[in-house]
Amino acid sequence: MIAKSVNSRRLLERSQLVCQDIMDMRISITPPYADATVVYWNNLLFEPRVIEFVKEDLSGMFLLRKVVSSLNLCPRHRDLCHNAFCGAFKLEKVLYLPCSWKANLQQVFVYQSQ
């Protein structure tokens, strides 16, 4: 189905799709992921241990400026939070966007590097 859309074909030409367990790779040191400046992470269905693993890995990506996530990555955040992700990023804004899988708007959390 993706091959039928002109826009999707153009996207496939410029992007790389990888089917691999994220726990088996370190995106913070694996090219081309390590060079990313913006990450969109649709993490609604990830297990908590996977979310924690990826958060820690994202914290080590020094070129990364924005992380856009479908989940709040530190729901109990405090000023003196010891979470490595919170040391590297701060919540910049929360957006409410339409999505294809439900009628209501989806919360999206935008984090800025510190």
Can you put this structure into words, describing what you see?
InterPro entries: SAM-dependent_MTases_sf. The chain has 3 helices and 4 strands, in the order H-E-H-E-H-E-E. With 114 residues, the chain is α+β, with helices and mostly antiparallel strands. The chain has one domain: Vaccinia Virus protein VP39 (Rossmann fold, 3-Layer(aba) Sandwich), CATH 3.40.50.150. Strands 1-2-4-3 form a 4-stranded mixed sheet. The chain is globular. The chain starts with 5 loop residues before the first helix and ends with a strand. The relative contact order is 0.15.
List the helices and strands and how they pair.
Blueprint: H1 6-14, E1 38-41, H2 48-59, E2 66-69, H3 84-88, E3 89-97, E4 106-113
Parallel strand pairs: 1-2
Antiparallel strand pairs: 2-4, 3-4
| CA distance, first residue to last residue | 40 Å
* Class by SSE composition: alpha+beta
CATH architecture assignment name: 3-Layer(aba) Sandwich
Q: Going by CATH, what is the homologous superfamily?
A: Vaccinia Virus protein VP39
- SSE string, helix = H, strand = E? HEHEHEE
Sum this structure up briefly:
By secondary structure, this protein is of the alpha+beta class. It is built from three helices and four strands; from the N terminus they run αβαβαββ.
